[in-house]
Structures are given as structure tokens and as C-alpha cells.
Amino acid sequence: MSNSSVVELPVLQEDAPCCPPVTSAALSEADSVRMAAMFKALSDPVRLRLFSRVASHEGGEACVCDIQDVGVSQPTVSHHLKKLREAGLLSSERRGTWVYYRVEPTALAAMAGLLAGGGAV
Amino acid sequence: MSNSSVVELPVLQEDAPCCPPVTSAALSEADSVRMAAMFKALSDPVRLRLFSRVASHEGGEACVCDIQDVGVSQPTVSHHLKKLREAGLLSSERRGTWVYYRVEPTALAAMAGLLAGGGAV
């Protein structure tokens, strides 16, 4: 019936920029679930420090060997890095012995965008 | 011994702007505790929606009566608003029958500042 072989796929929410600043519009229920999961990943002090160590590392990428000195055991570091990956905040790549982590810029921009617009204080 | 009656108080961390963007510097342990508590307050979808409803409400202020229609009971709304207050994200004021909520601009700016600098995606 269609005159085109191109199927229009629904826009995946994961790829859409999210969201307008909280100061300009109330969040939808779906967006609140998605964004709350990202904030949850940053709600633990050790996890937040690991995230900041990756984000601030030279070249925007860190070997787990560069960032694991945060006062907890190596398995705990791995657990937290896994949570950050699952929440879409970090990506990882194994190279030889080590796993390298990068911040997912889309996730960081989504969180920053949501909280922006409060103005300087 | 002092030639001045003015006592220099240490700068309270609560009043200091926090923090450099995660992309520019790793968080200190103390700052990570403080900022993780703020993100924790936003880690629940209903709480995040309530926060966005207050933040986006006309005049930057919302009566609890304006924002409580988020699909949970009124006591649950109260519980979440209390958590947001305790985390320093909202302030409240009772006027007559109703309590009015405002976003704390310093807290919003601290979170936005920490996540800023990721660049547009």
C-alpha cells in the first residue's frame, strides 16, 4: 500500500536530546524516569568521584588503573563503573589488560541541559 | 593580642560556589558527598517531576496544591517534598492553609555548574 519502501521508524527516545530546562517546563513522566536513572547513577559519592575522574582525565578517557584510587576495593570500583555504564553515563572499551572509560557526552549534556537556566548566583 | 575585633570566620562550604565542571577537575571527597546528596534527591522519578513542577511554575514558586497531581498520594508528595527540602534543593514557606515551594537557585546552579562543560552534542 505504501509508495515507498522506506519504513519510518519512531524516533527513539534514547537518541532524542532531553529535555528542556526544569525552569522552563515540567518533565513528562517518561522523561522523569529516564533522567532520574541518570541522577541515581551520580547519587553515590564514590560513583560521582569516579565519574568526575573519567570526565576530567586527559583526553576525556581514563584507564581503570588511573582512577581506582578512591579508597574502596577494586571490586567495588568495578561495581560502580558498571552502574555508570548501565545508566548510559560512561562507555567502555577493553584494550589488552585494561578497560578504558569515556563519558557519554549525550548523557552529560542531557543532565546539564535539564538543570541549566537557573541563572548565575 | 589581635589588633582587630573582627574575627575571620572560615568560609562555610555551604556558601561556596560548588564546583568546577567535572570535565575540568576531579571532585574532592567532601564535594562528592555534598553533590551526591543533591543528585540523590533527583534520583526518584516522582521527586524529579515535583522538582521540575516547582522550578517551571509561574513566578518560580508553587503551592503544593498546584503540583501534587503526579499520581501518588498526598502523603507521598509531602514525603518527597521534604526530601527535596532536606537536600537543599527547595525552600518552603507556609502561608495560611498552603505551603509554597521555591527552587534554591544556589543548589540548582551548583548541579548545573558541575555537569556543564560537556559541550553541545
Automatic annotation (TrEMBL), chains A, B:
Entry-linked InterPro entries: ArsR-like_HTH (IPR011991), HTH_ArsR_DNA-bd_dom (IPR001845), HTH_MetalResp_TranReg (IPR051081), WH-like_DNA-bd_sf (IPR036388), WH_DNA-bd_sf (IPR036390)
One Pfam family linked to the record: HTH_5
CDD domains: HTH_ARSR (cd00090)
Superkingdom as given in the UniProt entry: Bacteria
Gene Ontology molecular function: any one: DNA binding
Swiss-Prot/TrEMBL keywords: DNA-binding, Transcription, Transcription regulation
SUPFAM superfamilies: Winged helix' DNA-binding domain
Domain HTH arsR-type intervals: 27-121
Name of protein: ArsR family transcriptional regulator
Organism: Kitasatospora viridis
Lineage per the UniProt record: Bacteria, Bacillati, Actinomycetota, Actinomycetes, Kitasatosporales
